[in-house]
Amino acid sequence: LWRARLRSKGFVLIKGFGKPFDKPLQSATIVAQLAAGVKPDGVVGPVTWKAVGKLRKKRRPIVATRALVPGIRPKILDCRNGRNGFPVHAWKRWDARPAGALRYKLGHYTGNEVPFINDAKFHVYSDYLDQGGAPSIAYGIGVDRSGAVLVFNDPGVTTWHCDGGFNSYTYGIAFQGGTPGPTAAQRKTLRWLYRELERGFSPRKGERWKPLPARDTVHRKVSSTSCPGDIGEAFYRRISLAFADRPTKG
Questions:
Q1: Cα 101 from Cα 158, distance rounded (Å)
Q2: What is the pLDDT of residues 29-69, one digit of tens each?
Q3: Helix (H), strand (E) at residue 1
Q4: For the stretch 149-173, what's the b/e string if a residue is b when 16 or more beta carbons lie within 10 angstroms of its beta carbon?
Q5: Diameter of the chain measured on Cα atoms
Q6: How many Cα atoms occupy the beta-carbon half-sphere of 103 within 13 Å?
Q7: pTM, entire model
Q8: Peptide bond before residue 213 is cis, with ω within 30 degrees of 0
Q9: What does the pLDDT look like over 172-229, one tens digit per residue?
């Protein structure tokens, strides 16, 4: 009955009848709860049943809608090229991205709640991403739990933030955290950030980037990983103008 209800409201990724309440169905439930404005806990109780029932069916999936965003600029910290104490490799540098190669913004979570500086040291000082360490932290931009923006790498370089051969085609954005999803402050900042990146982001005074594509995906759509979790993916979908379940290269 719940699968049928979701289908009737335009949730096109729900498949099967009589199957257990599996992870795909729970993810769709969370997306529906977000669309209906109720607590996104993945539990179908009376409040969720009624609220989703009031949703109007849309021609496009509900997950493709875009929330209104406040126009308040958050705190921005430039951490590129060793600024603000973020480590860089002694001699390795990221390769330049071919012109026009960038196709998607790609959403991550860090999988933990430790500061981004820990991730940076892990990437640079361990063999996790490459033998002898990576050039720097591999994300493009991070949003910490307070909602501050940390700029790690320009869109014009190819960092090793995902697998599946998609590093050249995606720009990685990560929120500090795990399966509970982004905090309220992070949600506010990420909505603002996605809009700004699509218009031309200004990481500091006198610098403005070219607009990034208004197409998006998440880490687990290009490789076998749980990142950014069910709640994280549902949120990235919600703020996207065009979300790709099957992103393409080139």
A1: 10
A2: 776 776 677 887 888 999 999 988 887 754 333 332 333 34
A3: none
A4: bbbbbbbebbbebbeeebbebbbbb
A5: 59
A6: 15
A7: 0.71
A8: no
A9: 999 999 889 999 999 999 999 999 999 999 999 899 999 999 999 999 999 988 999 9
Query: Which DSSP symbol is given to 142?
Result: E
Q: What is the distance between the alpha carbons of residues 77 and 79, in angstroms, rounded to a whole number?
A: 6
DSSP letter string over 47-63? HHHHHHHTSPP-SS-GG
For residue 189, give every residue at least 6 positions away whose Cβ sits within 8 Å of its Cβ, in sequence order, or none: 74, 143, 147, 148, 149
- The strand pairing partners of 173, in sequence order, are 107, 141
Q: Which of 68-82, 152-166, 173-187, 228-242 has the lowest mean pLDDT?
A: 68-82
Query: What sign has the CA pseudo-torsion 24, 198, 163, 88?
Result: negative
Q: Pull the structure tokens for residue 227.
A: 């990142």
Question: Could you identify the residue written with the tokens 């919600």?
Answer: 238
* β-strand partners of 112: 177
How far apart, in Å, do the first and last CA atoms of the chain sit?
41
In which residue are the tokens 């700004």 written? 196
130: amino acid identity, one letter: D
- Grouping H, G, I as helix, E, B as strand and the rest as coil, residue 101 is coil
Helix count and strand count (H, E) for the chain: 6, 8
By the 8 A CB rule, do 186 and 171 touch? Answer: no
Mean pLDDT of the chain: 86
The strand pairing partners of 174, in sequence order, are 108, 142
In the block, residue with structure tokens 């069916």? 57
Amino acid of residue 33: Q
Do residues 143 and 150 lie in contact, with contact meaning Cβ atoms separated by under 8 Å? Answer: yes
